[in-house]
Structure formats: structure tokens, C-alpha cells
Write a structure and sequence with these properties.
Chain A is α+β, with helices and mostly antiparallel strands and about 525 residues long. Chain A has seven helices and 25 strands. In chain A, the strands form five sheets. In chain A, strands 1, 2, 3, 4, 5, 6 and 7 form a seven-stranded mixed sheet that branches. Chain A has a six-stranded mixed sheet with strand order 13-12-9-16-24-23. Chain B is α+β, with helices and mostly antiparallel strands. In chain B, a hairpin with a 5-residue loop joins strand 18 and strand 19. Classes of the chains: A alpha+beta (about 525), B alpha+beta (about 600).
Chain lengths: ~525, ~600
């Protein structure tokens, strides 16, 4: 890799016009295992190994290069080409050479277009450079490889998934386990040489059903660890299967909710997703200089964006929260920059953005958040999000506060969001600067001490700035949400850690639903 | 017929007579949980009906139950190794009746509405779980069918159909349950072999990029329908592909591939033969890269050896299947490629000294296994030999259960998925036989003689065509848009094409394409050789049967002589060429010697 890097870089530098000023290769090696079962029968059991190559080649100068953001354009130079997973130099070198040549052609072509573009368009507001200077890093770590006991897991998921047989109302369900260990190799013309990586083990329990009115319902739980040996014991997964099944059963029987605006509590997990979606995506650095973006916070550095008692930190170097391993941890980002904690909001005041090596006004350097899925271009992405609160109260107290807020506002009820699966947020200027998040388990909380009532068929909607102002207090018990976040640069593993939140007002609307009936014939029995 | 996208590691199917296992067949039939689950749920599904809407009149369940092994390598390094155990169900429901149903409408086959988030079909024999899966999939297919027929009826309010044809032909329900046995394939040995074969290219620096891949599939195809058909047949295939790319000094990109394939794992060529074939590919890439660019040519062309069989497989084979124009809302564009032979039954399409027979029942020919043989097609119909052309006259077409003008029933040629709820027809083993043939050497003499008479400086010989195509998707797109402008089906480019001078000397040229070559050109065949070239290939729905262009393939074969055709136009590629890389290729031989 190093040999081919210097050979290609020096030849191109000497002979090519425009000449490159930066070249890097990132190779992502993955060893993958996966087993899935439904109702006691294996549906998938496989393993594989792959290496993918991402080339980053920059022509022009750090001031203006082929990666320059032009409104409305999505640039793509790398292809994530498959590379042999064996250490065979001839095969690796040929692919590196071909991909470098491919990237160079695209890069040179785009730079010429950009130069023309910058002559005819009005000056962009953010005149910062296209590439930051960072000190090269040399570090070759030994990546631990864990053992995946495929046969044992097959037996376990068979048994675990069989538990769903007790719930005939559930149409489809599965229990799956997967493990991939990932090793990343990085070499750049600046002299960086890295080898690092980690494992991702995951158990996913999921179930789906269809209500009589056609609404599709789904519930699920996941467990993550770096080593499959640290995944939970069967008793814990069994309990999750039971919860997933009971939740779905309860949802099938739950009434459909009406649109409503009023006070609510987000559980810690739900609050984590909420923050990730509506806050986290808006502090990704590259969005601040794209003139197609809404730039919610671009000019707010030093200003108040959240209530005083809240701080938000992104920290990929933290591996655990309590005893739960975090999905968004890593040692180096995909541009070879060391991971570090970034305090984005301190006591309500915006301090920083998540940065890749694409500088923005006021932030000249990367803070190790340039990430991607192999085959896509790096942009700034979230890692482990931590919501920290100085106004934390015990959970029971938070609930009392909700009840008094319901009474104060004279509302018939409040809401409790236990689980949120994910959401969408429009950060582009052409769309509404709004978000929608998809809660799964939502309860009506009555002010007069009656038990909570589960409802279904709602989405949470709102606009970000208004919503943050309505956070009143938090609990003192952080919860962890581990997941994968999809955006321009693909899916990357992330975490969000937050205490429960009390908000004075949140709006829910009816969810778009399917018009189809549930299956016409009853579920098949007999004949065995 | 099988999915090429999946691959496998597997095993060998042994004929039951060899093992004396005749007694186990019946036992396996009655105990096969997959078959029972399919049978029981199919029978229950007949009762499907929504309120006022019609009940299904036909339901069919197909399950491909198999294992695949896939390995790929480049320059001595493995890129991927994959073993997959799979069951792929396909459920079709028809509502209405044989005359008028939910198919043959532009929206047929699309999924409307209900979609259950079904995990993959279980690969273990759990009767209950399999039934559950089939239950939900049938429900979803039924709802789509009901939606499609109502949209079709609505569309017909505004368009008049001349000569309405029935939508579905009846077929005799076939009962055929064959023994299916899996034996292990030595995956490690094949991985090693593929790795070693890919390293052959180390010695050919003119080859810019290369790769070798193997796919071995062992499948049992299950087919049941509500008319009573019950089929279980084994379907195995092993396929080794080597592909290579080179760039000529003027920048022209060249590509080519060589394939080894057989239905019977034990009859795969041995390693020395594989090596020879791949070395020949690498050598010819180097020769082509160094060859001059061809020029415009119009005149006689000799399709010699395998090129003759490729020509028939591509130009005749594809046009022997008909495509129906679906019912559609007025103003919509019909993009279905039509057969160039449509409506020409009873007319002469080849010289009168030609006969063409398609015969899937023939398993061997002159001691060589035939790649296009099969027992039952995708619609549960057992095929027989079919005489397509007699004394140059077109007698019939390759037919599925979708009725065509002038033909009512299937002849068991549904080999590929088709459009709008139907299946696509394809050849099996296509035998092209000519009488009054000449030794191949005499064909070349005749070509030279014709050129001499017409004062042409040279004639042309094609020895191999790019079919199935090894082109990139971008190149295929260019080819398609060019042929659309010219108004016809695209034809693959000649890969090995030679100028033949009056003194018999040959010169390899590159960068030529056919212009206007189509089914009508076959009428202009002047002479045929006394050779019989067996050309095997994986057919698919992609243009030029593009390698990897579609994930469902049909094993096919053409057996045909060399042919001399008059008035063929060849035209040099006139696209802009990419520049050569600025950085020269790495020195691979130095690397290979000290890994």
C-alpha cells in the first residue's frame, strides 16, 4: 500500500496537470458472521470476509480542490472497490493503481469545472479552505479478533426465536446475531500510516404485525458489544423477546391516537434518539458551509442554543457508558485523524461543530469526526452523543413534574415516549426545517393517577429551535441507545446517551398508514 | 434455470440408479416437509376471496431449494469466498379466468400495497414456519393480483384491443418427483484452483485488469400449482468465468472473457484445460491490444467455428421467443423488445437447406454433455423436441403458457422470468443443421474468391463474438442507444475478427461492430461448414445476455456450423477514447516472484 501510494503520488505530481497535492488509501477489512432464525427455524447462516478500498485524491490546493462543495452537487470520487483479502502484493497493487487512475480522472475533471463555476457565481459566504492541515499519525495497533461460535449461536437463536410461537397475533418475527470485526488500514501522502479497528457484535430481536385497520406495527430490541462473548446471556435475551412480543400484543390492542400537543417525558433512550436526530445532525460541520443547507446553528457559536442546564458532548474515545459498550467508539476517523471528545454545547452555549478535514469559518481543524461507510465520501458525522444535565432529578420526581405541568396547562393528559426507533430531519433549505421522529411505545399519562394508556399510530413532529427551548428538566439516570445512522456518507455506528427529558410541549400527528387488511386467511395450523 | 446471483458450495447430485437408492424416492416424497407445506398451504389458499372481489383461479408455488458456492480472485489473491444455503420462494396468484386475468397489464407483477416484512424463507425443515411464510406471501400476491386486475379493467375502458388473446393457456398438470441428493463439493480445493488460475495473468502485463470467478449451484426446483402439478427436479450447475481488460495504445478499452460450464460437477474440465483456456484469453488480449483498428467493411463475412454457433444462439435464438404488448393506459410507451420474426411463421427465414430443432431432452451429443438440457420449465411443463425451422421455413416459436397469436398452448419453453406476470421463452439445445456443407477450409477459399471477383482488397473472418457480453454496463448502454437509433435489437460485437487477404494471410483487427446484422441477415447465408460447434452459455434477460446482467439465468446451448454470409456491414467504433493512465502499471512479475 505504501509503495503503491508513493509511486502513484510522485508520478502524478511530476507528470499530471492538474497535479495532486494529497493522496490517501483507506482499506476496510471485515470478517463477518451472521445467523438468523424465525420461530425456531434458521433462515440465514453465513460468514464472509472482504476488503474494500477507498481512495482520496486531491488536486489543486488545500484552498481550492476537487472536493470543493458546490451547492446542489454530491461529489463521489471513491468507489469502495473490492480488494483481495489475502496479502498478495501483485493483486493489491494492481487494484490500487487502477483505482488511483480512476479517481485522478474524476478529480481533474471536477477541479476544472469548479474553477469555472467559481468565476461565474457570486462569492460563497464561507470562504474557508477545502482541506485542513493535520499532523500525520503513525500507529499500527494489533486488532483483537474474537471468536464467533456459529454453531452455538445457531442453536441459541433457534431456541430464542421459537419463543415467538406463543404469540399467534404476530405475523413475522426473528432473532438474529451478527458479528463483524473491522480492521482499517490508512496511508496518506502526508506520511500517516495507521492500522486500527474493533469488533461489532449485535443481537436483534424484532417482530411485526398488522392491526385490523391496516396499520403496520413493529417492535424490537437490540444488544451490542465489541466481542460476541460479551453479548447477554439467554435469560436476558429471552426477557427481551417476551417484552418485544408483549409490546406488540399491547400495540395491536391499543387505540389509535389523535393529534395532540402537550407536555411529555422522553425516556433516556428516546431522548438520545431525539437529540441525535434533531440536534446532532445540525452540528455536523460540513452542513455549515453548504449553501443548500438550513444552517440552523451556523452563526450561533457562542450563543445559547439549549437551556442553561444542558451540555452536549460527542466522545468517540469513551468505550462504555455504565456497563454498556458504545457503538460509536473508534480510535481514528476515516481521514486518519485521532478521535477526541468534543464539547459541542456547554451550559446551553454552542461551542463547536463536529469536524472532518473540511474546514468551516472559525474552525480550521478536524476534531476526528470525518466518517464514512466504505465506498462513500467522508463527511462529518456523529459518534457517541452524551447529553449532560445540571438540573437532574430522580425519575419519580420528573414524573411528578410532568403531572403538575399537565395540570398547569390544563391538558387532559400528557405523553410518555418510551421507545423511538429513529427519525428524519430535513437540514436542506429547500425542505421545511422540521423533523419527524417515529416513536414505537407511546403512553398517555393521566394527571389523576390512572395507569398509563398505550396508544399507537403517531409521529412526533416539530421544528428544532422551538423544541429545544421547551426542555424543562432531566432525570438523573442516563440510558444508552446504540444504533446505526444513515446519511450522505452511508451508515456509521453511533450511540446516544441521555437522561430522560421533560418537555413543556411536543406535537404528535397521525402516522401515514397502509390501507391493506391483515391476512385474509387465518394463520395456518394442523397438517403436520 | 437458476439464480446466478447466489452461489454456492456444494455438492454433487448422484443419479439414483448409480447408488441403487430407488427405494428411497417414494419415502422422500411423502416425507419431504417442504413439499407438504407447499401442498397444504396451496390447497388452503384456494379459499382466498375478498368480499365482492373474485377468488383466485390459479395459484402457483415455486421454491428453489439449494446451496451455492462462489469464489473470486484476481492475480493470485482471493477477493471473496461465499457459501450460501438458500430457499427462494416465488408465489403467483391469478384472478379472473384463463381468458382475462390480472397479467399482461403494464402493472402486472408489481407489488401493490401489502408487504409483509418476511424474513428469508427458512432453510431448515420446519413445516409450520414454511407454511406460515407461504401463507403471508400468498396473501400479499393475491392482494396485488386483485389490484392489478381492477387497474387493467380501468385501462381497458379507454383503449380498444384488436384480436384479444387469452391471458393464460391450460396445461396438463405434471407429476414428476425426482430424487435429489447433495454431495459435498471440495470448496477449499476450488478456492485454491481459482486463486491459482487468476495468477496466470501475472505473466501478461498487457492485461490491465483481470479476474476469475467460480459459481457452483446445487438446487432442487419445486413447482406446485392449483391445477394439480407437483414437480421436484434437481438442477445443478458449475460455472467458471475468467475476464480480462486491456487498453490499446490509442486508448481503446478491450474486454473479453472465457467460460467453462457444465451441469454435472464431475464433468468440469480438469485444471490443465482450464489453464490453457485462460492463458489463451490472456494471450489474445495482448494480441488485440497490439492489433490495428479495423475499417469500414461491407461484404461477405465468414463466421467460423464457435462464432457460427454464437451467431445462431444470439440472432436466431432470441428472436424465436415472442413478446406480447401489455395492456396499458393510452399514451404510455411500449418498451418491450419485439421479435424480428413475429408474424413470419410459414415464411422462409433461412436458406432451404437448413433445419433447426430445439431439444432439451437430449442430454449428450457425441459423448459431450449438453448444457441446455432440462426436465421441466418454469411453468411446470415438460418440454419435448421442437422442430422450429424446416427446409428454411419457420414452423413455430418457443412458447410459454402465455398464448400468442396463432398459437394456443405452451411447448415447455418458459425458461426465464418475463414481463407483466408472464414468463420469458428461451432456447435449450438449439441444433442448427445444414445439408450440402463444405469443409471449413473451403469456406475461407470461397470468401477469398468472392473478394477477388468483387475486387475487394480483403474479406473478413469472425472467430468469436462478445456473446454473452463481457462489456461494462456503460458500454452496453451506449450500444443500446446506438441500436435504438438504428431501429433494431443490438447485436454483440465481434471479438476476434480478421482481415483475410487474397493470398490467405490473416490480420487481426480490433474495434469493429456490426451494423444492421439481424435475423433477416440469416437468409443471406451463402454456405455452411461441415463442422458442428457446440456453444454453451448462460442466457438471461439482459441485453446481449450480459454476463452478470440479470440474476436469473437459463443454461443454454447452440450446436451449429460455420457460415458464410453476404452483405454484412462492419463499422469501426467511433466513440471518444479514454487517455492512457499517467502512472504506468505496477510491475507485477517482480511482485509475484517474492510474495
Amino acid at each position: 500500500m505504501s509503495e503503491e501510494l508513493s509511486r502513484n503520488f510522485s508520478t502524478l505530481k511530476a507528470k499530471a496537470d492538474p497535479a495532486p497535492y494529497f493522496l490517501s488509501y483507506e482499506v476496510t477489512e471485515e470478517d463477518f458472521h451472521g445467523v438468523a432464525a424465525t420461530l425456531g427455524a434458521i433462515t440465514r447462516n453465513g460468514h464472509g470476509k472482504s476488503r474494500r478500498l477507498d481512495v482520496c485524491l486531491r488536486v489543486g490546493s488545500p484552498k481550492l480542490d476537487n472536493y470543493h462543495r458546490v451547492r446542489g452537487e454530491r461529489t463521489q470520487f471513491t468507489s469502495g472497490a473490492a480488494l483481495t483479502f489475502e496479502d498478495r502484493p501483485a493483486s493489491i497493487k494492481q487494484r490500487l493503481w487502477l483505482e488511483t487512475d480512476r479517481a485522478y480522472r474524476l478529480a481533474a475533471e471536477r477541479l476544472i469545472k469548479i474553477r469555472t463555476n467559481s468565476e461565474v457565481k457570486v462569492a460563497e459566504q464561507d470562504a474557508s479552505s477545502d482541506f485542513s492541515s493535520e499532523a500525520p499519525v503513525v500507529r499500527l495497533e494489533t486488532v483483537p479478533k474474537a471468536r464467533f461460535a456459529a454453531d452455538e449461536w445457531a442453536e441459541r437463536v433457534r431456541k430464542l426465536s421459537g419463543r415467538f410461537s406463543d404469540y399467534p397475533g404476530i405475523l413475522t418475527s426473528s432473532v438474529s446475531v451478527s458479528y463483524q470485526d473491522e480492521t482499517k488500514y490508512f496511508a496518506s501522502s502526508e506520511g500517516s500510516r495507521l492500522r486500527h479497528g474493533r469488533g461489532f457484535a449485535r443481537v436483534v430481536v424484532s417482530a411485526q404485525a398488522k392491526a385490523m385497520d391496516g396499520t403496520d406495527l413493529a417492535t424490537g430490541e437490540t444488544f451490542e458489544a465489541t466481542d460476541p462473548g460479551n453479548l447477554p446471556r439467554d435469560e436476558i435475551i429471552v426477557a427481551a423477546v417476551e417484552r418485544v412480543a408483549q409490546d406488540l400484543k399491547a400495540l395491536l390492542a391499543a387505540p389509535e391516537a389523535s393529534p395532540f400537543a402537550g407536555p411529555a417525558i422522553f425516556s433516556g433512550r428516546a431522548a438520545g434518539v431525539f437529540f441525535h436526530e434533531i440536534f446532532g445532525h445540525r452540528v455536523e460541520g460540513h452542513r455549515q458551509k453548504d449553501e443548500e443547507e438550513g444552517q440552523t446553528f451556523t452563526k450561533s457559536v457562542g450563543g445559547k442554543v439549549l437551556p442553561d442546564f444542558l451540555s452536549v458532548v460527542f466522545d468517540p474515545t469513551r468505550k462504555k457508558a455504565g456497563d454498556i459498550e458504545l457503538n460509536g467508539s473508534y480510535a481514528y476517523d476515516d481521514e486518519g485523524v485521532a478521535a477526541r471528545p468534543v464539547t459541542v454545547v456547554e451550559n446551553g452555549v454552542l461551542k463547536a461543530f463536529l469536524m472532518s478535514r473540511s474546514p468551516i469559518q472559525g474552525f480550521d481543524h478536524s476534531n476526528g469526526h470525518g466518517r464514512r461507510q466504505p465506498g462513500l465520501e467522508v463527511v462529518s458525522r456523529q459518534s457517541n452523543l452524551f447529553v449532560e444535565s445540571s438540573q437532574a432529578v430522580p425519575e419519580a420526581r420528573l414524573r411528578e413534574m410532568l403531572v403538575s405541568e399537565i395540570k398547569r396547562q390544563n391538558k387532559p393528559y400528557g405523553l410518555y415516549f418510551r421507545d423511538i426507533t429513529g427519525g428524519f430531519t430535513t437540514t436542506g433549505r429547500q425542505g421545511l426545517q422540521a423533523f419527524k421522529v417515529i416513536p414505537i411505545m407511546v403512553y398517555k399519562v393521566s394527571p389523576d393517577g390512572q395507569p398509563d394508556e398505550l396508544i399507537r399510530g403517531v409521529d412526533i413532529v416539530g421544528t428544532p429551535l422551538a423544541s429545544f427551548a421547551k426542555i424543562l428538566a432531566t432525570s438523573d439516570r442516563p440510558q444508552v441507545f446504540n444504533g446505526y445512522c444513515g446519511a450522505e456518507s452511508g451508515n456509521v455506528p453511533v450511540s446516544a446517551v441521555s437522561p430522560a427529558l421533560l418537555v413543556s410541549e411536543i406535537e404528535i400527528e397521525k402516522k401515514n398508514k397502509s390501507q391493506d387488511r391483515p391476512p385474509l386467511l387465518p394463520f395456518p395450523t394442523g397438517g403436520r | 434455470m437458476k439464480r446466478a446471483a447466489r452461489t454456492s458450495a456444494c455438492a454433487t447430485f448422484l443419479l439414483l440408479s448409480l447408488l441403487g437408492l430407488a427405494g428411497s424416492t417414494l419415502a422422500q416424497t411423502t416425507n419431504d416437509p417442504l413439499l407438504r407445506a407447499m401442498r397444504d398451504e396451496l390447497s388452503r389458499s384456494r379459499g382466498l376471496k375478498v368480499l365482492s372481489l373474485e377468488a383466485p383461479y390459479f395459484i402457483e408455488y415455486t421454491v428453489e431449494d439449494g446451496e451455492s458456492f462462489e469464489v473470486s480472485a484476481s492475480l493470485g489473491g482471493l477477493i471473496s469466498v461465499r457459501h450460501d444455503r438458500f430457499r427462494i420462494p416465488e408465489i403467483k396468484v391469478r384472478v379472473g379466468d384463463y381468458k382475462f386475468d390480472n397479467t399482461d397489464y403494464v402493472g402486472s407483477g408489481s407489488h401493490f400495497g401489502t408487504h409483509y416484512d418476511i424474513e428469508r424463507f427458512p432453510v431448515e425443515n420446519s413445516y409450520e414456519v414454511m407454511r406460515r411464510f407461504l401463507w403471508l406471501a400468498t396473501d400479499s400476491a393475491y392482494k396485488s393480483a386483485v389490484e392489478a386486475i381492477s387497474r387493467k379493467r380501468a385501462a381497458l375502458k379507454n383503449v380498444a384491443i384488436n384480436n384479444p388473446l387469452d391471458d393464460f393457456a391450460k396445461a396438463e398438470p405434471l407429476k414428476k418427483i425426482l430424487e435429489v441428493r447433495h454431495a459435498p463439493l471440495d470448496e477449499d480445493a476450488w478456492s485454491g484452483r481459482v486463486r491459482a488460475l487468476s495468477a496466470i495473468f501475472d505473466a501478461y502485463p498487457a492485461v490491465k485488469a483481470s479476474g476469475v470467478e467460480l459459481r457452483a449451484l446445487q438446487t432442487a426446483n419445486y413447482y406446485l400449482n392449483s391445477e394439480g402439478a407437483e414437480v421436484r427436479v434437481p438442477d445443478n450447475m458449475i460455472y467458471l468465468l475468467a475476464r480480462a481488460e486491456a487498453q490499446a495504445p490509442d486508448g481503446m478499452m478491450l474486454h473479453d472473457a472465457v467460460v467453462f460450464q457444465t451441469l454435472d460437477f464431475d464433468r468440469m474440465p480438469a485444471e490443465p484445460e482450464l489453464r490453457r483456456g485462460i492463458a489463451a484469453l490472456a494471450g489474445s488480449m495482448a494480441d488485440r491490444a497490439g492489433a490495428p483498428k479495423g475499417e469500414d467493411y461491407s461484404g461477405p463475412v465468414l463466421f467460423e467455428g464457435i462464432a457460427g454457433a454464437q451467431l445462431f444462439a444470439e440472432v436466431l435464438g432470441a428472436n424465436l421467443a415472442l413478446a406480447r404488448r401489455p395492456v396499458m393506459e393510452p399514451g404510455r410507451n411500449n418498451s418491450v423488445p419485439m421479435s424480428e420474426l413475429e408474424g413470419r411463421q410459414g415464411a422462409r427465414i433461412l436458406p432451404e437447406w437448413f433445419d433447426v430443432v430445439d431439444d432439451p431432452t437430449q442430454k449428450e451429443w457425441r459423448g459431450r454433455p449438453l448444457f441446455g438440457s432440462y426436465e421441466v420449465d418454469r411453468e411446470g411443463v415438460a418440454p419435448g423436441p421442437l422442430s422450429l425451422v424446416e427446409k428454411g421455413v419457420l414452423k413455430t416459436f418457443l412458447l410459454t403458457r402465455q398464448p400468442e397469436q396463432g398459437f394456443a398452448g405452451s411447448n415447455g419453453r418458459a425458461r426465464l422470468p418475463g414481463s407483466f406476470g408472464a414468463n420469458g421463452a428461451g432456447i435449450s439445445n438449439l441444433f442448427v443443421r445444414a445439408t450440402g456443407t463444405l469443409p471449413v477450409a473451403d469456406l475461407k477459399k470461397q470468401l477469398i474468391e468472392m473478394c477477388r471477383q468483387r475486387n475487394k482488397p480483403y474479406g473478413m473472418i469472425v472467430r468469436r463474438m462478445d456473446f454473452p457480453s463481457s462489456a461494462s454496463v456503460q458500454e452496453i448502454r451506449r450500444l443500446l442507444s446506438n441500436s435504438e437509433q438504428a431501429g433494431g435489437r443490438p447485436v454483440s460485437a465481434p471479438v476476434l475478427v480478421y482481415k483475410v487477404y487474397p493470398d490467405g494471410r490473416e490480420e487481426l483487427v480490433r474495434g469493429l461492430r456490426f451494423r444492421g446484422l439481424n435475423a433477416r441477415s440469416l437468409k443471406d447465408i451463402l454456405a455452411a461448414g461441415d463442422d458442428n460447434n457446440v456453444f454453451e452459455f448462460l442466457n438471461n434477460q439482459a441485453p446481449l445476455a450480459l454476463i452478470g446482467g440479470a440474476n436469473y439465468v437459463a443454461e443454454s446451448c447452440a450446436i451449429a456450423p460455420s457460415v458464410l454470409i453476404d452483405d454484412v456491414d462492419l463499422h469501426p467504433v467511433d466513440e471518444e477514447l479514454p487517455k492512457l493512465p499517467i502512472v504506468p502499471a505496477p510491475d507485477l512479475r517482480a511482485e509475484a516472484s517474492h510474495p
